[in-house]
Amino acid sequence: MVLKMVAVFFMSAAFGVLYRIPGRLVAAASLVGVAAWLTVMLIKSIGGSLIMANFAGSVIIGLGAETLARRLKQPAAVFIIPGFIPLVPGGEAYTTMLYMVEGHYVEGVSMFMRTVLTAGAIAFGIFISSTIYRLLINYNTERKMHNAGKD
Prior knowledge:
Blueprint: H1 2-18, H2 23-45, H3 50-72, H4 77-84, H5 90-101, H6 105-150
Subcellular location: Cell membrane
GO cellular component, one term: plasma membrane
InterPro entries: ThrE_2, ThrE_Dicarb/AminoAcid_Exp
């Protein structure tokens, strides 16, 4: 498990470098990917579906990215992109194409739907968590400003 975590860290870091994330932020962005991957593994280990696990992992990505973006004064995308790389269903997409090429159309369509749902769960999880985080931050900021005006 530790070896896999290290591999996920370096995989996320490699994509961070590939996408030219500033060097001082690569480690933090990679930790977002590790946290998301650990969440996926935890959900799957307790019997959760792959789609639900990826949704939960992507929520972690969104929350982690928004938090780091605020603290480090960077765009959230700097942390989201390397963060979601470990969750990308590349193996499933490959299997989908393999089934189709081999003429196993029923299995191919089934795997295609699973791949699309997994990718959709990742996108939706990041969207929802980032949106809710920003709404809460804006609400708290407005509340503090309103309360400061009463003093």
